Amino acid sequence: MSDDVIVPDFRGQQALNAWLAGHDAGVLLQGPDPDGPQPVMDGIVVAQDPAPGVRVARWAPVTVWVRPGPDDDSGVREPRRPEPPVNTLKAEG
After folding, report:
1. Which tens digit of pLDDT belongs to each residue from 27-55?
2. Where are the alpha helices (DSSP H) in the chain?
3. What is the predicted pLDDT for the residue at 69?
4. How far out from the chain centre does Cα 93 lie?
5. HEC states along the chain?
6. Sheet containing 61-67: order of strands
7. Omega of the bond prior to 39 within 30 degrees of 0, cis?
8. CATH of domain 4-32+40-67
9. Where are the domains of the chain?
10. Does pTM top 0.90 for this prediction?
């Protein structure tokens, strides 16, 4: 019995679902900075290395890149609405 597994295609999956699928397949998902503070749990997987279909040793790491999901409402909130009334934000002179 070989200890090799085939890397699944995680692209397009929710990060948490991809992590669970990777565990079931015998690989460990990690972000591009494995020592970084953000675990691979949120967002959509957009790329991975090694590529899908590659044979790797069981429990080998697979690096995934994620983007925020469609329901992620974090980030910049500019411009603000409603805008402040004209002439209310004057510099003091």
Report:
1. 999 999 878 777 778 899 999 999 999 99
2. 15-25
3. 72
4. 48
5. CCCEEECCCCCCCEHHHHHHHHHHHCCEEECCCCCCCCCCCCCEEEEEECCCCCEEECCCEEEEEEECCCCCCCCCCCCCCCCCCCCCCCCCC
6. 28-30, 61-67, 44-49
7. no
8. 3.30.10.20
9. 4-32+40-67
10. no
What is the torsional sign of CA 73, 46, 59, 53? positive
The amino acid at 34: P
| Cα(19)–Cα(24) distance, integer angstroms | 9
| Cα 35 to chain centroid, rounded | 15
Structure tokens at 55: 């044979």
Place of tokens 């970084």: 36
62-83 as b/e: b if 16+ CB within 10 A = bebbbeeeeeeeeeeeeeeeee
